[in-house]
């Protein structure tokens, strides 16, 4: 580690504190966090296995659901094993490259998830507003291209963040990151160099993704609701809207924790730092936990397939 004017250093690693202020409770906190991570992994792997095995689920909406499950696995796995290592072994040290990689995965795949929600909204729009052409418009190839577009959307937006830190912020005033993972702002605030470009770019990308994706999803649902209101009977309207229920729930599960965490970050100056860190971790855990549950409860084919698997396992015992 190279000293610079006895104030700043060129670092090769950082130290994550975990939930700062609750260090004495880390072992106890590992129980709910470890349990939630296990539920998230089992739930999303189960969704992937059920869709793979059940040929009736080989449809665009379920392929998008599989993409969502993979994203949720990446988001939770990029942070939880390291957090549990901090809780159990005080293993807070993380190399600079590993820190930047973790930052990239978190912000990139959160952006990709937003893109997948937009693709799912397009799928519901075509299925409801132009049902006769749904299978010809959303072929397997088109679904794959939409998934690839969402991935590129995340890589191109977030890639420069890590690159700018690597190239423009070589020296830091501390190696202690008061967080449980390498979040962009938590790292940038430690830099000795001018970080205004990073701050502006990070905020601009966040607002751009939020505004553009939200506007496109809202526009899709405006057209969906207009089409639904044109149906003849209330029963037909409810049945048609019911096909959108899981998607709407997943969007709310994704957006609400982000909105709460952002509002507290910007306006909740009286809120203690441990609460900020806990909310930041819940924002990465809640969607991976709840998305499989929502789709398993609300999707008849997935629910029936899960029940068949459970009955078969009980008979084998």
Task: Write out key terms for the chains shown.
three-stranded mixed sheet, globular, 75% helix, disordered N terminus, two-stranded antiparallel sheet, 317 residues, single chain, mainly alpha
The ordered string of helix (H) and strand (E) elements is: EEEHHHEHHHEHHHHHH
Describe the strand arrangement of the main beta sheet, using strand numbers. Answer: 4-3-5
Overall geometry comes to globular
Q: Separation of termini?
A: 58 Å
How many individual helices? 12
Largest sheet: 3 strands, mixed
Strand content: under 5%
Average pLDDT for all residues:
87
Q: How helix-rich are the residues, as a percent range?
A: over 70%
Structural class: mainly alpha
Please give the radius of gyration in angstroms. Answer: 22 Å
What is the total tally of β strands?
5
Runs in which pLDDT lies below 50 for 5 or more consecutive residues are: 1-5
């Amino acid at each position: 580690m190279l000293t610079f004017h006895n104030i700043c250093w060129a670092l090769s690693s950082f130290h994550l504190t975990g939930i700062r202020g609750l260090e004495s409770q880390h072992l106890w906190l590992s129980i709910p966090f470890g349990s939630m991570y296990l539920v998230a992994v089992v739930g999303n792997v189960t969704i992937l296995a059920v869709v793979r095995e059940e040929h009736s689920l080989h449809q665009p909406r379920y392929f998008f659901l599989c993409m969502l499950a993979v994203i949720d696995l990446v988001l939770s796995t990029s942070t939880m094993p390291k957090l549990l290592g901090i809780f159990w072994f005080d293993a807070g040290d993380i190399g600079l490259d590993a820190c930047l990689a973790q930052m990239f995965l978190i912000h990139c795949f959160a952006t990709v998830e937003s893109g997948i929600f937009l693709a799912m909204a397009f799928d519901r729009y075509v299925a409801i507003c132009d049902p006769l052409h749904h299978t010809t418009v959303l072929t397997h190839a088109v679904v794959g291209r939409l998934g690839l577009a969402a991935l590129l959307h995340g890589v191109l937006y977030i890639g420069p963040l890590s690159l700018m830190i690597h190239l423009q912020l070589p020296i830091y005033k501390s190696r202690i990151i008061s967080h449980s993972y390498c979040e962009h702002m938590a790292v940038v605030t430690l830099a000795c160099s001018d970080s205004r470009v990073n701050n502006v770019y990070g905020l601009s990308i966040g607002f751009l993704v939020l505004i553009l994706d939200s506007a496109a999803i809202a526009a899709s649902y405006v057209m969906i609701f207009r089409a639904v209101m044109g149906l003849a009977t209330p029963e037909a309207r409810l049945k048609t809207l019911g096909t959108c229920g899981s998607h709407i729930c997943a969007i709310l599960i994704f957006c609400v924790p982000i909105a709460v965490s952002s509002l507290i970050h910007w306006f909740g100056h009286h809120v203690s730092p441990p609460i900020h860190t806990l909310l930041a971790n819940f924002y990465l855990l809640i969607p991976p936990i709840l998305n499989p549950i929502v789709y398993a409860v609300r999707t008849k084919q997935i629910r029936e397939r899960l029940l068949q698997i459970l009955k078969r396992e009980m008979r084998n015992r």
